[in-house]
Task: structure prediction
Amino acid sequence: MQYDVAAIIQGYSNGYFLMADENNHLGWYGSCDRTLIPLDERFRYPKSLRRVLNQNRFSTAINRDFEGVVNGCANRDSTWISEDLKDIYYALNQNGWAYSFETWQGDQLAGGILGIVIGGAFIGESMFFRITEGSKVAMVKLVERLRTKKFVFFDAQMMNPHLERFGAYRIEDEEYQVLLDKALKSNCSFI
Result:
């Protein structure tokens, strides 16, 4: 199936995101508030994770196994990532918009974060792990990369207790739209 990649990127550029409902029907969604992962000193993580990072048990890669990350993110009892949405992510990846930021332990995919990059915005769609701490290490290393590349924000879309541990915070839609406008005018390179 062919997807209008430009129209999909326009939707994300307007502050919407795609999700499938319980019947696997895709739709555009917005939110009155958004969850951001801080790219400044507010970003934090547990001391136990610092030990894991210091042990260098994981390496990172971008798009080494994009399909594996998409499937890992969708592999849940209840998921909003339908087969159609997977295909959209593949089309976005082939056109340079969607990326997987991965952790590896040797030759095994340990975890990863699926995201869409538009200008200086990293829009995190989902994350998963197969090896304990795999997604947490991916989060820390991804934040380091986004800082280095001078991204405006890391959008995690919706709050959960896991993200809260990293210092995630909510902003109102009006503030999000201002940041999004700034991000769209930024010329950041993710790779």
Q: What stands out?
A: Helices lie at 5-13, 47-54, 66-74, 83-94, 134-148, 161-164, 173-184.
